[in-house]
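ping. complex inputs:
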Amino acid sequence: MKKTQESPMSEAMYYILLTLTEALHGYAIMEKVKDISDGRITLGPGTLYGILKRLQDDNAIELEDADGRRKIYKITAIGERMLKREYARLHAMVDDGAARGLTK
Amino acid sequence: MSEKRKVKLILLDEWELEETESWLNDFAKDGWLLERMTTWTATFVEAEPVNLRYRLEIASRRTQLDEEQIELYEDAGWEYITNRRYIHVFREQEANTAMEIHTDAKMHAETLERLKKSVINRGIVMLFLAIICILQQFMFLNNPSSFEYLNDTILSTIFSLIIFLYLTFYMLRGMIHMTKLMKKLKNNQGLNHEKPYRTKLSVRKVSFVLLFIFIVVFPVYLLITSIFNEAEYEAIPDDTLPVVSLHEIENISLSQVTYSMDGLARQRENSIVQEASIFVPEQYQLSQRFMIPSKGEAYEPYLRSNRYEARTEGVAIKITDLLKEERAGEDEFTNVSVAGFDEVALLEYESFIFLIARAENMIYDLRYFGEETSEQILALLEELL
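pong. complex structure:
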């Protein structure tokens, strides 16, 4: 029984997809996620590996031609759609909050 | 290179992931770093004491982990050490520098699915086997024969029951442990990598020793005692014996009888055997078979006369009942009263007499073939006390 990744996706997954708009290898993804989230999100290598495998199974990411021995991942069209859908959902959530008077 | 090494038995179970990590960590603190693991053993190399964390990872499909996964962990500050079947061991390269492997408890739980399945499958098979064996042994225990009391077979039954009960308990505990672990992770709590294990380890050691005794020492003991208990045939003296004897029943001196057989056959038919079992520590069996020329050529009476001293009166009562049941078959014993005895039961056929008598924890079990009467035998029995 394979779970297909529907929205909402986990925070970690969202950030991984976000970093993979450029081709990266595993450790670089970890670094980048930490970087773009301003250190808010840290990804353990085990968690990252699990999510990469799952995204690969869902065809949301794919392998680029290997650079030496390290595997390089990049987002696919499916992955981009997932990411945009999630972005829209999060955006809608923020807008709904703002409409009800929430501020930062 | 003369690095000091030591090999330790892994007494923790494969489902005790937290405890194993903590156990390995303590070795590092004591200056012993894990080098290699097998299903049963862990080899450590001596080093500077250092507080290095260990993490166990389960390979989800094959036995080996993906190379990519190992590289990723190494990039994050871990070192791949060894594996115990599909359980892989990582140690941080430098104290307190490696990134925690799992930052998402629910995803961590998914990686443990395989271990959980394996423990539960093994548990179910074990439980199924154990239940069959336990039922079988209970039926046996419920319905023992006198033979099982007089020889130690009843003990093997009890011991195999204990072993099966232990194994069942063991697998059940594994299943419960694994389920709790998964529940903890699914509730978004991480594992406790410093979980105390010492009590578990001591209990495990004791139960392993006990199991060893049950599985190895006990059968060896049975074997040895059965060798030493090998019956020896003693010649029968003419004077008074602790049981009713054939020459007393026939009222004749042994010097006046002749034998139809010679050699070992005669010895076997005319012997005293003393044996012991745990439930019946004193067992005395007299066998006699001879001819009495004065009573005619064809007359050859014989006798089996046993005396059993059971450990308790309760056991004696149980054995008496079993003996009656086994001897009587379709027929029934008649109770008679003899002074000094708690119960005396007789079963008479044309020239065959069964007698079973009990005084407290002492049982007399007699089978006689001949022309003399039960009155004669009962009179002799009364004299025994």
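The radius of gyration of chain B is 34 Å.
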